[in-house]
Amino acid sequence: MLSWFSHPYPSLGVFDDMQDFEEGVDVPDRSKPASAPKPGHVLAASPAGDHVPRPRYTSRSAAGSDGGSLSSEAPFHPPMPWFGMDIGGSLVKLVYFEPEEVLPQDAEQDVELSRTIHKYLTSNKTYGDTGIRDAHLEMRRVPINGHFGTLHFIRFPSSAMEKFIFLAKTKGLSALSSTICATGGGAFAYEKLIKQSVNLDLHKSDEIDSLVSGIHYLELNHPEESYFFENPLDDSKCRKVPLSIRDLYPYIVVNVGSGVSVLLVESRTKYQRVWGTSIGGATFLGLCCLLTGAKTFDEAIALAAKGDHRHVDKLVRDIYGGDYGRFQLPGDTVAASFGHMLDPERRKNAKPEDLARAVLVTVTNNIGSMAMMCAMNAKVDKVVFLGNFLRINDLSMKQLSHAMDFWSKGKFKAVFLEHEGYFGAVGCLLEYMSLAKAGTGVVDA
Ligand SMILES: Nc1ncnc2c1ncn2[C@@H]1O[C@H](COP(=O)(O)OP(=O)(O)O)[C@@H](O)[C@H]1O
Ligand SMILES: CC(C)(COP(=O)(O)O)[C@@H](O)C(=O)NCCC(=O)O
Question: Biased-composition ranges for Low complexity (predicted)?
Fold first, then answer.
């Protein structure tokens, strides 16, 4: 990469393994049948095993999935709690919508259980050892399908998914609803286990559809969701500048999760996956664990912030003695990632922080150059980067900003979004609401 700077990061906590996610929760006994369903409600077919029959719900109004259009009719009440879940290769993202008004429910126990779940989720910022609520991302008074409320953003490692399912089973979450909406690869991978363990049907929403719909919703409902960096490499002048991408179609979306997916988004409804690479966030973390002994993403980023990749990477000037002028390659451009590691002496002296930084630069460079090619190929000049690889990772965001600007001679702009890795889960929540609304039979009677 061109030039680098360091940035100290606070460690935001370690979550290695999800234990006792339910700590401190006191919920009603769900083994007893709920009160009788109200007249007019159709019961879900009584599932086998220890399940309580559940009333189904009927929608009563229509509102746009962008949440922006409030219907004059009474808002419908799909089964609560209202969640969208994105089960990715590394992290499960859970978005929970807490309506401002108290909604009528069908059974007293449901009200009680909803309240307990609500209290547990909103009064804690951590759950067990590994669950985290990103309170700084919380959004108040946002509309979804005729309701106003607060969106809460929660994540835990995908490796804790089985414990989460066990928690849902022991605490009776499944008795509130017959279906949950999930997206991400885990929606496919865990479908059978969820059905067997808690008898919940998983409505699978495609991760690309959910992502685009989540971006659209947050762009509409969160005024400063998207921004770019001005003077990204100059600490004294660098600043975040808001830039709404709401009407900026077409743009490229680069989702840096475990791997990387690249989308060309031409409108709210017209988009396609155009490229991908397996060198993504999990590559960064996996290689850092291997090379530096770091155990978590936060540790790896903190290490990288202290390191100097030039002790590890071979630069153009290490080969040319300066710039490669004919092709405008500055001397401080990385010529060969990890190129110095062929030298036994340098290898012996390589510090963990330099290695972590070199891994970060390698992965980021690769993503940046792929994004450039995709943007050039599609003839678009805005590239929106998201995914949790960018969480607490200003280093990569600034590197991408600078690279896009430099290599395109100022034509391309790198744009970032505040809710980094949560768009799929938001889209999935909207999908849940609209399924109930549309009377598809998936959530509705
Ligand atoms: N607390 C964390 N634990 C694990 N990975 C994290 C964490 N925070 C950020 N990351 C980074 O985010 C990537 C996962 O991003 P995400 O958008 O959630 O993708 P996925 O849907 O594949 O899980 C990881 O590979 C890692 O680089
Ligand atoms: C398979 C995936 C869509 C899964 O999404 P993720 O959990 O990484 O967010 C993604 O990892 C990906 O696009 N990988 C790159 C595959 C490729 O095109 O080479």
Answer: 59-71
What's residue 147's pLDDT?
87
Q: What is the pLDDT of residues 141-182, one digit of tens each?
A: 999 988 899 999 999 999 999 998 888 777 776 676 667 899
27 located within any domain: no
Same domain, 176 and 252: no
CA of 257 from ligand 2 middle (Å) equals: 7
Q: Quote the CA–CA distance of 374 and 367 in Å, as a whole number.
A: 11
Contacts of 117 (CB under 8 A, 6+ apart): 27, 81, 171, 173
Record the tokens describing residue 169, joined without a space: 């089973």
Domain that holds residue 431: 82-214+424-438
Q: Are residues 375 and 249 in the same domain?
A: yes
Ligand 2 site, CB within 6 A: 88-89, 184-185, 257-261, 276-278
Question: Does 102 share its domain with 157?
Answer: yes
258 CA: nearest ligand 2 atom:
8
* 421 CA distance to ligand 1 middle (Å): 8
Ligand 1 within 6 A of CB of 257: yes
Give yes or no for residue 285 CB within 6 A of ligand 1.
yes
Whether 87 and 184 have beta carbons less than 8 Å apart is answered as: yes
3-class secondary structure, 150: strand
Hey, whose CA ends up nearest to atom 24 of ligand 1?
281
Whether residue 207 lies in the annotated active site: yes
- Classify strands 271-277 and 260-265 as parallel, antiparallel or unpaired: antiparallel
Q: In this structure, are 234 and 363 located in the same domain? A: yes
CATH code where residue 158 lies: 3.30.420.510
Interface predicted TM-score (ipTM) over 0.95: yes
CA dihedral angle for residue 147, residue 26, residue 109, residue 53, rounded to 10 degrees? 100
113 belongs to a structural domain: yes
Is the distance from the beta carbon of residue 387 to the nearest atom of ligand 1 less than 6 Å? yes
Query: pLDDT tens digits, residue range 38-62?
Result: 222 222 222 222 233 333 333 333 3
